[in-house]
UniProtKB/TrEMBL annotation:
<dbReference type="InterPro" id="IPR036513">
    <property type="entry name" value="STAS_dom_sf"/>
</dbReference>
<feature type="domain" description="STAS">
    <location>
        <begin position="40"/>
        <end position="135"/>
    </location>
</feature>
<dbReference type="Pfam" id="PF01740">
    <property type="entry name" value="STAS"/>
</dbReference>
<protein>
    <recommendedName>
        <fullName>STAS domain-containing protein</fullName>
    </recommendedName>
</protein>
<dbReference type="InterPro" id="IPR002645">
    <property type="entry name" value="STAS_dom"/>
</dbReference>
Length: 135
């Protein structure tokens, strides 16, 4: 895995690739400490090969912030292992008191609908968050 960190006065941004499957993760944090809000944008496929590392990466990005938006609008495929990853992320962010939400692509929304009928994973449906700024 390659991790590149670019710091500016207003944001922390990390980009990296996970595993042998095409998956790209961008992380952007605004603010500091408990007022920090993080957006993690993912593109590609979430499958058996990279689901555990995907979950660990998102959990690390959420650590110490008060809000997390997980943008999965660019995910083309998500296996059931991706659902397990989302439940692991959910458990950690709830323990940490982090408010969070998944913005799902049609492929992710389909898996959420089948595997999370109770709605335990907070989700929203919008077109895309690419390029959006945190308020």
């Amino acid at each position: 895995m390659t991790v590149t960190s670019i710091r500016s006065r207003s944001a922390d941004r990390r980009r990296f690739s996970i595993g042998s499957t095409a998956l790209r993760v961008d992380s952007r944090t605004r603010g500091r400490g408990r007022t920090a809000h993080t957006t993690v944008s993912v593109s590609g496929d979430i499958d058996t090969v990279n689901a555990a590392e995907f979950a660990a990466t998102v959990r690390d990005a959420a650590c110490g912030c008060s809000g997390l938006v997980l943008d999965l609008t660019e995910v083309d495929f998500m296996a059931v292992d991706g659902m397990s990853a989302l439940h692991a992320i959910n458990a950690q962010v709830l323990r940490g008191g982090v408010e969070w939400c998944v913005v799902a692509s049609p492929a992710v929304a389909r898996v959420l609908g089948l595997c999370d009928p109770e709605g335990l994973i907070p989700s929203a449906r919008i077109a895309s968050l690419r390029g959006a700024e945190i308020a």
